Amino acid sequence: MSVDVESKQRKGMDRFLNGVERLGNKLPEPFTLFTALFLITAVACTIMAWFNVVVDVPGTDEPTPIKGFFTGEGLAWFTSNIGENYIGFPPLKTVVPILLAIAIAEQTGFLSAMIRKVVGSAPGWLLPYAVGFIGVAGSIMADSAFVVIPPLAMIAFKAAGRHPVAGLIGGFAAAGAGYSTNFVPTSLDALFAGITNSVITTVPMIEQNADPINPVSNYFFNLASAFVLAILAGFIIDKVVEPQVNRLGISRDEIKEPTGLTEELDAIVDEGEDTGIYAQRGTGVEQSREVEDHKLTDIEKKGLRRAFLVLGILAVVVIAAILVPASPWRNEDGGFLPKSPLLDSIVFLVFTVFAVGGYVYGKKTGAITGYRDVPKLMGGGIVGMTSFLVLAFVLGNFIALFNWSGIGSWIAVEGAELLERMHLSGFGAIVLFIVLCSILNLFIISGSGMWAIMAAVFVPMFGLLGYEPSFIQGAFRVGDSATQIITPMNPYMIVFLGFLRRYEPKAGMGTIISRMLPFVIPFWIAWTVILFIFFQFDLPMGPGNGIMMDIP
């Protein structure tokens, strides 16, 4: 291919993505956008309630009526639950504790030192692929991956002399678009398996002939998908995203906006400098943000060794605590899947790694003089997440209304029934099913919630056509992940936007969508092709789980 042709193709892609960005950025600011969506949903559900619209949610005994917001019941619900809708917003309990811990690790210099240690001996060309693998594997941390991986990738890229925004984008894309697969079984696999088993019994023919479903029923498919998507993510980061970011002239350094929040953060940093928190050269806020100097100092090396030693001891303690037969972190059956106190402790474990590691490192290097410095460091983290806390208020109430009114279930069920009425069979029907899942994923990002609805309709429907439930479950995974990184319904897009605005202060939802599109379409196509290969060659989806049922 000639240089002129390649140049024209790059320009054409840039024009397309820039057009998407401009169109998307015509959307209001997130707070205004979700306020508008709240009002639109409120009006829509009220009109549907006036017309007595009901939805037959599979698994329920009676039709569920759509509830109207502008009714006595709706207004009473809202006024009684406005605070609970906000405080109960799921990402709060994940994001806030982790960001508080990351604030300690970042502002003491622990994060930057750790990343520079890792990348110091690794070739720069390998970084994008490392981010791809770490991102795809991140779902083992559940939603914590959206908070932890992007900023770590950002710091790693900057430490290696590459564009930090490329790492940030790649980390979020790999963690989100590949969320439903992994190299190892996760709690999501157990959750999906439980839902699938619950609907198999509704059709005796399927119950009698289908292979048993368990947390590893999609493992072979997941393993193949994880490797391919991780490599693909690295390729896109390296060959598409970073070149585009460089062509757009996006700053490699954080851009401080003259806002009240910046002034507050500066005040906290100044106070920390006065008290000796950031006194040690090579640590602290400035060093964690300006990591061009890759070489670790002797004191940084000692700090890392001390931190890793303490974290290693803690890991041994945790493993011992969960392995004992009577461990309180086991479930009632003595295991850990599908649910257990251990899996519910993921946020605590991530918090401990960053908080303890950062504190021990800071004490050794002199970045922390005593425990009294911890609340000051956390205070810096709170200032940095203020915009998220504000947006979470309107977003939490919007999602609560979306669920309470029943509109979310109505959209999912109507979409599923539309595909069912088309009476399609063969892999073409599977592709349409994936398309439907991808579209619904723009509105319902809870994978388990959407699978609970979709499985009740499509597992029996495709089962009557001879398909194994495990295969349909695998097809659902494809549609459940790829598009969730371009929907404003994803609450973690707000967190990502906060990081992105460090380098692009004017970035908006359109900016995120345009940056993520290079991942969405290739991921969707590659994942579907992998599924087709399993289908075409009748490869097992997991141990003891095939494609088609052996029906007598």
Oligomer: single chain
| Main β sheet profile | 2 strands, antiparallel
Q: Which range best describes the helical content: under 10%, 10-25%, 25-40%, 40-55%, 55-70% or over 70%?
A: 55-70%
Shape: globular
Mean pLDDT: 80
Radius of gyration: 24 Å
Count of β-strands:
2
Strand content: under 5%
> Stretches where pLDDT falls below 50 for ≥5 residues?
258-293
Numbering strands along the chain, what is their spatial order in the largest sheet?
1-2
Number of domains: 1
Number of helices: 23
Query: What's the N-to-C terminus distance?
Result: 55 Å
Instruction: Report the order of strands and helices.
Output: HHEEHHHHHHHHHHHHHHHHHHHHH
- Which class of secondary structure composition applies to the elements? mainly alpha
Structure description:
The chain is mostly helical and 552 residues long. The chain has one domain. Helices cover 68% and strands 1% of the residues. It is built from 23 helices and 2 strands. Strands 1-2 form a two-stranded antiparallel sheet. Helix 2 packs parallel to helix 17, helix 3 packs antiparallel against helix 17 and helix 8 crosses helix 23. The longest helix is centred in the middle third of the chain and has 29 residues.
